[in-house]
Specification:
This protein is mainly alpha-helical. It is built from three helices and no strands.
Length: about 55
């Protein structure tokens, strides 16, 4: 894959965010969460994810 230089950093940041959200969803599913609550990560699942992140 070829990525324009000016898009490389934003793409890497988006990839890390996606990876973090996926890891959160997998943890919640392992803890007994419902698939419909975490895939896709929207609504209450997304709110829960955002609340789990430290304030920046």
């Amino acid at each position: 894959m070829v990525v324009p230089q000016d898009r490389a950093v934003p793409l890497a940041e988006d990839s890390l965010l996606h990876q973090d959200r996926e890891a959160f969803a997998r943890r919640r599913l392992d803890e007994g969460g419902l698939l419909s609550d975490y895939y896709p990560l929207t609504g209450e699942g997304l709110d829960e994810y955002l609340a789990s992140k430290p304030a920046t």
